[in-house]
């Protein structure tokens, strides 16, 4: 009998496709969970950008890899490379988790669920609230859609007028016109319009940075310049988790705001992906103890 934790001829491979990737806690989180449950898998990180993505996905399919996560900058670019999308992935137009079902690659999106669970753990309820979101990539899109589904009443989406700006506009359109049974309005704005950004933050309950600002190589930057943009009763959150306290979160702390970093979202989106691949719940409390407190 093979010792649990050792790679053998039957070990199944899981992975992460992203760049930059060296900072990721996903390999540690998944591998400690797999070992804890005695599951014969190993999770690896692969430095993959848009240029290499198609070839890598073809290789993953050919090698019958069980599944993999997808992070920046690949969450939207991977869509045409997959065979099927879950409803959440289709609505968000972005994928962060892929499972291989007998050669069929199915894309899921667990980012929005993970983000909302991190808010709940911090005692924050999105229902009836206004949220301002910075970014329009895969994570930002998933958060915006899930916020609307979970009862947010207003969503302001800011992004530079770059390749992702049409996604910001599409997200607002989807929320306003395509999701049935919700009472939420959304609008997209140019991130360069600082007066509009300041005005939207001023009347928001939650401010979320869902862009790469705050992580390497932008770890010394913030989407807000100083404490004058904030009031103590606004919740400020960040999808970035390394560093655990971004410059934006430090500014928010100085302003007396409740702050939430990206660790909770990382944990809960990963927990859902883990269950999709293995059919078993991730031992979340064990991961928190080992990964966050060591």
From TrEMBL:
Residues 262-289 form the SDH C-terminal domain. NADP(+) binds at residues 135-139, 239, 262. One of its GO terms (biological process) is shikimate metabolic process. Residues 16-98 form the Shikimate dehydrogenase substrate binding N-terminal domain. Keywords: Amino-acid biosynthesis, Aromatic amino acid biosynthesis, NADP, Oxidoreductase. SUPFAM superfamilies: Aminoacid dehydrogenase-like, N-terminal domain, NAD(P)-binding Rossmann-fold domains. One of its GO terms (molecular function) is quinate 3-dehydrogenase (NAD+) activity. Pathway: Aromatic compound metabolism; 3,4-dihydroxybenzoate biosynthesis; 3-dehydroquinate from D-quinate (NAD(+) route); Metabolic intermediate biosynthesis; chorismate biosynthesis; chorismate from D-erythrose 4-phosphate and phosphoenolpyruvate: step 4/7. The active site is at 75 (proton acceptor). CDD domains: NAD_bind_Shikimate_DH (cd01065). It catalyses: shikimate + NADP(+) = 3-dehydroshikimate + NADPH + H(+); L-quinate + NAD(+) = 3-dehydroquinate + NADH + H(+); shikimate + NAD(+) = 3-dehydroshikimate + NADH + H(+). Shikimate binds at residues 24-26, 71, 96, 111, 241, 269. Its EC number is 1.1.1.25. Gene3D superfamilies: Leucine Dehydrogenase, chain A, domain 1, NAD(P)-binding Rossmann-like Domain. HAMAP family: Shikimate_DH_AroE. Involved in the biosynthesis of the chorismate, which leads to the biosynthesis of aromatic amino acids. Catalyzes the reversible NADPH linked reduction of 3-dehydroshikimate (DHSA) to yield shikimate (SA). PANTHER family: BIFUNCTIONAL 3-DEHYDROQUINATE DEHYDRATASE_SHIKIMATE DEHYDROGENASE, CHLOROPLASTIC, SHIKIMATE DEHYDROGENASE. Homodimer. This is Shikimate dehydrogenase (NADP(+)). The lineage of its organism: Bacteria, Bacillati, Bacillota, Bacilli, Bacillales. The gene is aroE.
């Amino acid at each position: 009998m093979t010792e649990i934790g050792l790679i053998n001829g039957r070990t199944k491979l899981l992975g992460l496709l992203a760049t930059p990737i060296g900072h990721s806690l996903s390999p540690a989180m998944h591998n400690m969970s797999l070992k804890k449950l005695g599951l014969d898998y190993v999770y690896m990180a692969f430095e993959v950008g848009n240029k290499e993505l198609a070839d890598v996905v073809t290789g993953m399919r050919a090698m019958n890899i069980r599944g993999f996560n997808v992070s920046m900058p690949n969450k939207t670019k991977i869509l045409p490379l997959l065979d099927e999308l879950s409803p959440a992935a289709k609505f968000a137009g972005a994928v962060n988790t892929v499972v291989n079902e007998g050669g069929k690659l199915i894309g899921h999106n667990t980012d929005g669920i993970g983000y909302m669970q991190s808010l709940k753990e911090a005692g924050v309820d999105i229902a009836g609230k206004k949220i301002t979101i910075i970014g329009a990539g895969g994570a930002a899109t998933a958060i915006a859609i899930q916020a609307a589904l979970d009862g947010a009443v207003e969503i302001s989406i800011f992004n530079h007028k770059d390749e992702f700006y049409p996604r910001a506009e599409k997200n607002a359109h989807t929320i306003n016109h395509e999701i049935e049974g919700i009472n939420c309005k959304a609008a997209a704005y140019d991130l360069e319009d600082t007066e509009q950004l300041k005005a939207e933050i001023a009347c928001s309950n939650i401010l979320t940075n869902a862009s790469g600002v705050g992580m390497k190589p932008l770890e010394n930057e913030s989407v807000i310049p100083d404490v004058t943009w904030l009031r103590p009763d606004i919740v400020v959150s960040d999808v970035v988790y390394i560093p655990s306290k971004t410059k934006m979160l430090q500014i928010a702390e100085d302003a007396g705001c409740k702050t939430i970093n990206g660790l909770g979202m990382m944990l809960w989106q990963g927990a859902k992906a883990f269950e999709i691949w293995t059919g078993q719940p991730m031992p979340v409390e064990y991961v928190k103890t080992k990964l966050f407190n060591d």
